[in-house]
Amino acid sequence: MRYIEPHAHMVSRVTDDYVAMVTSGCAAVCEPAFWAGFDRSSVQGFHDYFCQLTEYEPKRAARFGLPHFCWLCLNPKESEDAAFAKDVLAIVPQFLDRPTVLGIGEIGLNKNSRNELKVLEWHVDFAARHDQLILVHTPHLEDKFKGTRLTLDVLRADSRIRPERVIIDHVEEHTVKMVLDAGFWAGMTLYPETKCTPARAVDILDGYGQERLWLNSACDWGVSIPLNVPRTALEMRRRGWSAEAVDRVIYQNPVRFLSQSPRFRVE
Ligand SMILES: [Zn+2]
Prior knowledge:
Mean pLDDT: 95
Order of helices and strands: EHEHEHHEHEHEHEHEHH
CATH class: Alpha Beta
Distance between the termini: 15 Å
Radius of gyration: 17 Å
Bound molecules: zinc ion
Number of helices: 10
Number of strands: 8
CATH architecture: Alpha-Beta Barrel
Number of domains: 1
CATH superfamily: Metal-dependent hydrolases
Shape: globular
Low-confidence stretches: none
CATH topology: TIM Barrel
Helix content: 40-55%
């Protein structure tokens, strides 16, 4: 089996996780910029984090033979302070030309607040001006439906944004259809309890086709399972999926989306 882990917060994981992923067939890992488990107190804190994502973590992954790519932004959980967000966004161009940067993400909404929406619009404008791919986080539980709809409205309002270059992550049964119908890619996040379990993800794949969908574990410092993509592959096989069909979802689909960035390469 081979697979891509397109959304994992490896800075929060130990080296045993790298070993487990590589020995399970992981061919590349991509890390969106996210919350640190605490709010950063300064722009310099983000500067250091962007250095970690573009310098130190790729080196750590390389020790296990795993190519590591990243996405940059100020994440939705820290975008309530709009003036601070503007200052953070101002340093992102310094990092955009680094060889493993794939685009802008994970941007989006957390509590669907007015300030979060404003910062989301800035990020979308920023990505359009710099011709970057976009990875979008959608809110949790009761805020998800409204947040996904608001996000789609922001993206569709900007005529420079091409839906095939945007992935909306953390979709569930009630949001996957609106994302795919609007021409965007959709990501399913495989958490042990919240978001999608492997069984629910396979139900969604059975119901909505396998064209513009990918799977990820989004493993971070919360309760999460770095091997949930290959575990979901097992669930597909158990339900009679062919090896080729599994490969299409867990390897070929992410490669197809990510290869829109000239920086993304797998052997
Ligand atoms: Zn994430």
